[in-house]
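Reviewers of the previous submission asked for a worked example of the structure-prediction workflow described in the proposal, so we include one complete record here. The input consisted solely of the amino acid sequence. No template or homolog information was supplied to the procedure at any stage.
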Amino acid sequence: MSVIGLDLGNQSCFVAVARGGGIETVANEYSDRSTPSIVSLGPKQRFIGSAAKQQVVTNFKNTATNFRNLLGLKFSDPAVAHELRFSNFSAEETQDGDVGIHMEYLGEACVFKPEQVVAMLLTQLKKVGEMNLSGKVSDCVISVPCFFDDRQRRALLDAAATAGLNCLRLMNDTTATALAYGIYKQDLPAPEEKPRNVVFVDMGNSALRVTLASFIKGKLKVLATAWDSKLGGRDFDERIQKHFNEEFKNKYKVDASTKPRPRIRLSQESEKIKKLMSANTTPIPMNIECFMDDKDVTAKMKRSEMEELCADLLARLEVPMKKVLTDSGLSPKDLYSVEVVGGSTRVPAVRDAIKRVFGLELSTTLNQDEAVARGCALQCAMLSPTFKVREFKVEDVVSYPIRLTWKPSCEEEEAEMDVFPPRQAYPYSKMLSFFRREPFFIHAQYADGGHTDPNIGRYTIAKVVPTSEGEASKVKVKVRVNIHGIFNVTSAVLVEKITAEDAAAEPEDSTAGEPSGEAATSETQNGAPEGDQPMDVDETPATEATDSASAPAAAAEDASGNGDDGSKKSESEPPKKKVKVKSHDLPIDARVEGGSTHEALTRLIERENEMISQDRLEKERADAKNAVEEYVYEMREKISSTLSDFISGPDSEKFSAALTACEDWLYEEGEEVSRQIYVDKLGELQKTGEPIKMRARESSERQPAFDTLGKTIVHYRKILSLCGGKDEKYEHLSADDIKSVAGHVEAKQVWMHERMAEVAKLNKFDNPPFLSTAILTEKTALENLCNPVVNKPKPKVEPPKDAKPAETAPAPEAAATAEQSQPAPATANIDADLD
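From that input alone, the workflow returned the following structure tokens.
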């Protein structure tokens, strides 16, 4: 089973694989370990990754960049408008309110969902993994920005499924970095010691993420995470771009913002000059030829000027870094180190800002570009049964607090409860107890107030009925944030009490202290990975669970005398009856925000497979065309040089004309034809060209083949000469044996002389009457006929019956003594390092 980790970046991606020797970041077909996050659609096929990079300027309308962060967003979300500032494609709102990316494919205008475009990129990354592993890739772990919510995570899972990938986990990118850092550390504190606290700052192309994690031996625990999803390297590029555009407007009277192609070129040059300024303090020049209106432009910028332009951006860097310290309750003196990753952390001003906040020198023990991919590959190996990895537990935290709301009854207002507070560890489950007489719904939403649309989903618990006495039934609902960081209601159970006077009573699930009205209480289960048996922990206080809904419920219990909320029960109350508890699974109708239905996902997969097939057919067609073009150029050069002796003058002129005609056809009506036509055209040329190649090849191989046969004949003639001289080695051969070998040798000698005479009469441009392989076949036949005769073993000679044995075997006792006297073989103990 192949194991890969994918760092799905907004600007570039990395693929890491797990092999027997460890984790390795692999290169794509261009021998580059970085694959650009670019998808370009051509009239016949798609260009993805490195192949699409050159299309950004020439085919900008059909080239998608900066599309990852559009996953799962509604078109009305303000984040969409921010992302589209950095994109060149046109976007529109679809019928269901999602983002539609408008591009042309196969000559038709198409609207693609961001999930489809991301799936195209994942398909290319999958190919990179398969190319390096020489096998199919299915299971993977994909990095995800820690600020992605449920909708965006569901959309990314849909994209992975569309690309044919089985995503074992969506892993927060900073958590993957922390795993890549901690799993190799041999000096981590013991569990009973004070943990090691490390800050990870990841600033990439589009966002800044900061995570504070604690490490002990065998465990990583994320304490706090903060981010600025609108602060990345591209924001610095934009400031530089605007500065130069204003300078060019004043100096050259050209405005790059009015036309897409100059704007793209200026953006690319701005990114280059930013990188150069990060390594140099001297002014860096910018020169662009034929920028606009056939004008060449030039300008300069110093690092200090860039820092002045981006002063407000640099000030924003400190906000998330200070927030992780506040949320974790730690101070800079509690930190062990600060690890920086991401391309934008190479900017000196960014590094200075990080130092100011944490007061520590920055550590770069990790590869700034590949750490996330390596962490994802490690996590995939840990989740895969194929690899044995050192035990290392990863405990992440939810990005946003989650609140549940429900109606205690039809007449009452909604009640609510924060079921997953900020920095709650996950995977994690909680069991909620509701007391209902009829079906009800639970509404999940984010409680932080930072979302334009905080809704996560609505879950209807069906087939809830009252007890036989007409009272509210107890319904236990399990909610969970799974390994991907996605919330869901996983199960609902109706608990039925059956009175049994004479039966042995079974323990009842937490009936004491729970109201019998329509309220809810909660139990929690800790975050074991999916599929593991969770471990019970302490229940949360009843007041936290019941909230405002508990009061009317308690009043109802007081009136009925069945409550246990502090009121005194009647002294004449009869003893409790023995009860049995029976559970019934209840259906859940989940209507979640984001994610595709099964039918919609099936259509996406079919569409992606169709495009993959089209890409394959177009590649085969292009390969067939290239084969014709290559053959034309090859034969035209060779028939006038190395192959000129093997084709007659008239035939050479005729073949040269055919090659020229084929070349003209290739660049005219043969520019866009089917693969089969190219195959047929190549076959026509090969009918003339391949015999020429064959004659040249035979001319070089024929004489060595004759020499090999001649040496074999000489070999057997020497043996016949030895036989005539009564050589001891061959004296056992009979006269018939010698005669047989002599006949075979003489026949092959005659055959060789006749063939050599035939060849001597031929011109070089004539087809030979036989091939050199026939000569080698005759040589092999001669060996097969003669070797069994000349290598016949001598007959064994029986010794005389009265002869004494040459040596006497030692007595058994002597043999045993000699055996005991031999030294014992040396042994060595080998300790295997199981880690």
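The first strand starts at residue 4 and ends at 8. We consider this example representative of the routine output the project will generate in years two and three.
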